Amino acid sequence: MADDRTEKDRPSLSRQFLPAVHGLLARPLSSYYLLIASAGLLLLIGLTMVFSATSVKAYAANGNAFSAISSQAVYALLGLVAFWICQRLPAVTLRALAKYVLGAAILLLAFLNLVVVIKGVGPLKNAQVGPISVSLLSLSFGGVSIQPSEVAKLGLVLWGADVIARKGPALGHWRELAMPLFPVIGLLFVLVGYNDVGTMLVLLALTVGLLWAAGVRLRVFGALGVLGLTGIGLLIAAASRGAGSGTDGAENYRVQRLTAFLTPLEKCDPGGVCYQLIQGRSAIFEGGWFGVGLGKGALKWGWVPEAENDFIYAIVAEELGVVGCTVVLALFSVLAYTGFRIARRSTDPFRRLAAAAITTWLVAQAVINMGGVVGLLPITGLPLPFISAGGSALVVAMAAIGMLASFARAEPDAARALNARPTPRWVRLVWAPLPPLPPPRRPVQPRPPAPKKPGSRSSVGGTKDRL
């Protein structure tokens, strides 16, 4: 009986585990370490999967299986540099740079769209304007390619957070949102959505996250949703007039791609718009629970279009199975939890708004990508953050993680802990400076006791005294 009573009184594994998790999360720098761990593991998985998805194709093209991964590794290194720079920048500097980053993005987008319209650049065409090579979504100069829409995401985060933080309580009035926030956002939607509706959806989600963190009233979201859906409808219709990769007079390819996931596979045309969806689904079925192993997937050998880019999640499912997909989902979940935790704990309005916007952007893009691969959402051509092959997308995403890391170090408890036991000077010079100390906590003043009603037992001359 004594042994049985001991086993019964012993706390369960969950009760032993949860306090340990809460203890780790209560540490001052837990947000910073969770962010670094989740983003770092996603980047490592991305490099592995890009090599696995491109090695066969690269070897068949030029006899070098490492050519594609070498390019991706260079961009990953540039992304780490961008992370290091951004985590060192204080909020004041980020706010000062906001309008310049957004202005540069608008100018690049305007130039890109102008060349695309004038020279009729399509999905498989390039146009040369002096030393600049222009494709449908990117600009190349001297072998360096950049997508202006990726810079627009970062610019909207910084500029939008700065504008909303400056307005403060006045944001509750509609006219404060109307100028200058909504006109600039509308201009970005048009410039980005003309060629890339998927990225425009990410900008819309980013804007919603920004306004939600600012505490804007729900009716504003209703109006924004109506305007956003109207704009998306107009951009989809514009594809029949040649917008993006559309052709004047041809069948609207945007409607086909956005509705293909609703068509059952047995009724879908395997030689048309459903080809990518069918091949990606086949790769997922091949993987099973544990996958066929890294480098052993057969469907990536040119059979899955864009296997290293927007359909790399299908390669993860084929080679690493359900287990690998679950790990990727878990890491994005940790990233989402950490980003919103940083936003909730930040006392500075700009940091809180920027952290919420960055987290919404990365998580929304990941959900749209993975939902399109598994057939739950339309295929939009968006890359999977940190994992898909791509230069400017990876660099910009790592810069955003660097900003989140800076905000995590500036949390009140983290800032006090770092300043209480400062690291050596060379570490601060090489890695990151000390964050500023938050204002001291105000002591809680005890509330004065409420006056007693006459006749109460504790009042002077009351019942107790009379007795």
UniProtKB/TrEMBL annotation:
Residues 434-467 are annotated as: Disordered. The keyword Cell inner membrane does not apply. Pathway: Cell wall biogenesis; peptidoglycan biosynthesis. The keyword Amino-acid biosynthesis does not apply. GO terms for cellular component: cell division site; plasma membrane. The chain crosses the membrane at residues 32-53, 65-85, 97-118, 184-213, 220-239, 311-337, 358-380, 386-408. One of its GO terms (biological process) is peptidoglycan biosynthetic process. It catalyses: [GlcNAc-(1->4)-Mur2Ac(oyl-L-Ala-gamma-D-Glu-L-Lys-D-Ala-D-Ala)](n)-di-trans,octa-cis-undecaprenyl diphosphate + beta-D-GlcNAc-(1->4)-Mur2Ac(oyl-L-Ala-gamma-D-Glu-L-Lys-D-Ala-D-Ala)-di-trans,octa-cis-undecaprenyl diphosphate = [GlcNAc-(1->4)-Mur2Ac(oyl-L-Ala-gamma-D-Glu-L-Lys-D-Ala-D-Ala)](n+1)-di-trans,octa-cis-undecaprenyl diphosphate + di-trans,octa-cis-undecaprenyl diphosphate + H(+). Keywords: Cell shape, Glycosyltransferase, Membrane, Peptidoglycan synthesis, Transferase, Transmembrane, Transmembrane helix. It is found in: Membrane. It is a multi-pass membrane protein. Its EC number is 2.4.99.28. One of its GO terms (molecular function) is lipid-linked peptidoglycan transporter activity. Residues 434-452 have a biased composition (Pro residues). PROSITE patterns: FTSW_RODA_SPOVE (PS00428). Pfam families: FTSW_RODA_SPOVE. Belongs to the SEDS family. FtsW subfamily. Peptidoglycan polymerase that is essential for cell division. This is Probable peptidoglycan glycosyltransferase FtsW. It comes from Actinoplanes awajinensis subsp. mycoplanecinus.
